[in-house]
Write a structure and sequence with these properties.
Length: 311
């Protein structure tokens, strides 16, 4: 029997596929749709201390090769999502979940994480260090000093399983430097990658999204090679106790297979989920299982990280 089951930090998942934060996860109703699909889990929209309306619309547009967004961190406030994952956790046979969080400042991040630490939530937390779209707020994980400071403080009080959502890096030296930072901490996982920040898509003579004069995060086909490179670069560099979640450009079983081959233990779907809806999880699972069957693989362990190089 071919299985796409997986584990992150001792949490079991029947399927390695799930949504990427930001897609089908703003409301309970959307999260319920992912929960009731073939996905193995869901992650919530990144929650901040207070609810936010986000940037003006249009702020998400599908393109021929993917998507561009500058949502601006709209969310219902982290407690909305915390309450929901605790409610599900208390139901028999619930899936395990990921709670995505970040503050608008390091101080706010610590207030949020301390509340999660004190709460009854026992699941996984994803700290988003890579939102590209809040005007005036740089992506945290491009600043290694600030990232080190935040994580040092976080792990002085936070004892629940925590991972980080990373932006794509584009230079081998940056892979080395970033991995050296993350290897200092007891992270459960890193999630590679968030959207490629600050792209620009034009229709006729005009930008397609309103915020930031059209600059926004790219997802979909544009970003798969960058995502695979980041997954594999961190797979090669991180302590084996830090697992990798692969995100970026997944719309088929073949794409998911490639992420796992590069080292991913779980695979998230963003743009393609937005475009196709939660039925995508069954289709991509079936396609992934067909590839595994053809190759004689029964579990993800049979091929995870086993990317071949040319001698
Ligand atoms: O809300 C957003 O604009 C957003 C976030 Br927080 C993120 O992490 N990645 C993204 O592409 N958009």
């Amino acid at each position: 029997m071919v299985s796409t089951a997986t584990q992150i930090a001792n949490f079991n998942f029947d399927n390695c596929l799930m949504n990427a934060a930001g897609v089908y996860c703003m409301t309970r109703e959307e999260l319920e749709q992912v929960e009731n699909s073939a996905a193995g889990s869901f992650v919530t929209k990144t929650g901040t201390l207070e609810a936010r309306a986000g940037n003006p619309e249009p702020r998400y547009v599908d393109t021929e090769l993917g998507s561009i967004n500058s949502m601006g961190l709209p969310n219902n406030g982290f407690e909305y999502y915390l309450d929901y994952v605790i409610e599900l956790q208390n139901q028999a046979d619930s899936k395990n979940h990921f709670l995505s969080l970040v503050g608008l400042s390091p101080a706010e991040t610590h207030i949020i994480l301390k509340k999660v630490q004190e709460s009854d939530y026992q699941g996984l937390v994803e700290l988003n260090l890579s939102c590209p779209n809040v005007p005036g707020k740089p992506q945290i994980a491009y600043d290694f000093e600030t990232t080190t400071e935040i994580l040092t403080e976080v792990f002085s009080y936070f004892t629940k399983p925590l991972g980080v959502k990373l932006p794509p890096y584009f230079d081998i030296v940056h892979f080395d430097q970033a991995a050296a930072v993350f290897n200092q901490f007891p992270l459960a996982f890193v999630n590679c990658v968030n959207s490629i920040g600050n792209g620009l898509v034009i229709n006729d003579e005009t930008v397609v999204i309103k915020p930031k004069n059209g600059f926004g995060g790219l997802g979909g086909d544009y970003i798969k090679p960058t995502a695979l490179a980041n997954v594999h670069a961190f797979y090669q560099r991180l302590n084996p106790s830090i697992q990798i979640i692969g995100t970026g450009g997944v719309k088929s079983g073949r794409d998911a297979f490639e992420h796992i081959l590069c080292g991913a233990s779980m695979v998230q779907i963003g743009t393609a989920l937005q475009q196709e809806g939660p039925a995508i999880f069954q289709r991509v699972t079936d396609e992934l299982k067909a590839i595994m069957t053809e190759k004689g693989y029964e579990s993800l362990e049979d091929f995870r990280g086993k990317l071949n190089y040319i001698d």
